[in-house]
Write a structure and sequence with these properties.
206 residues; mainly alpha; three-stranded antiparallel β-sheet; 10 helices; disordered C terminus
Length: 206
């Protein structure tokens, strides 16, 4: 009888960016685990990530138990006061809450880290996604990212001469998630764009 060697399973090496995606997208359900695995695989994860692997990573990150605590009036007042002063991660630490809970609650309360809402400049997008403004311009020129000039004659070298509406930026991020992989992105701003207020499946325990 010929003995065959068992195939060795290649273990996936998790990156910080992938772990951030798990933290942001996990909703305490098996469905969200499958969605995370599908999202990461569509972004080119190698070797492919299974739902079981996502579940194991959730346990290792210590986010398996989702909080079930309702927001008090005092907490919401502090959230209003601190938004714009501190990053969401620090606010979450101060309130002893999860970053997802804080970010979604900010969205539902209409609180914004930026003075301007609803649209972004080319410079805003470049800083958010950790790329040079020339890369953003290339996305625009190739038709991947829709933008319109908000001055009569936009200057070639100006970082803020184009208006990128939030809905168009969201569409770009959802259609081209691979552009987020391996970049030093602002995960909280990206999360804020991808998860509209009151979206089904994301709860902030009002």
């Amino acid at each position: 009888m010929v003995m065959t060697k068992a195939r060795r399973t290649i273990k996936h090496k998790w990156t910080e960016e992938e772990e951030d995606i798990v933290r942001q997208q996990y909703r305490g359900t098996h469905q969200s685990q499958r969605e995370i695995a599908d999202y990461l695989n569509s972004a080119g994860a190698q070797p492919p990530i299974s739902q079981f692997a996502v579940s194991g990573r959730i346990s290792k990150l210590g986010i398996g138990q989702r909080e079930n605590r309702r927001w008090s009036e005092s907490e919401m007042n502090r959230l209003r006061e601190w938004t714009g002063q501190y990053p969401p991660a620090m606010i979450a630490q101060k309130l002893k809450r999860g970053i997802v809970s804080v970010t979604v609650k900010m969205k539902k309360m209409g609180l914004h880290r930026r003075a301007r809402t609803g649209w972004y400049t080319k410079k805003d997008v470049a800083e958010m996604l950790g790329v040079e403004h020339k890369k953003v311009q290339r996305w625009m020129d190739d038709g991947y990212l829709k933008a319109v000039p908000y001055q009569e004659i936009p200057r070639k070298n100006g970082g803020g001469q184009w208006r990128i509406d939030e809905k168009n930026l969201r569409a770009f991020l959802l259609r081209y998630p691979q552009e987020l992989v391996g970049r030093n992105i602002d995960v909280y701003l990206v999360f804020d764009i991808l998860v509209p207020a009151g979206v089904n499946g994301y709860h902030s325990n009002q």
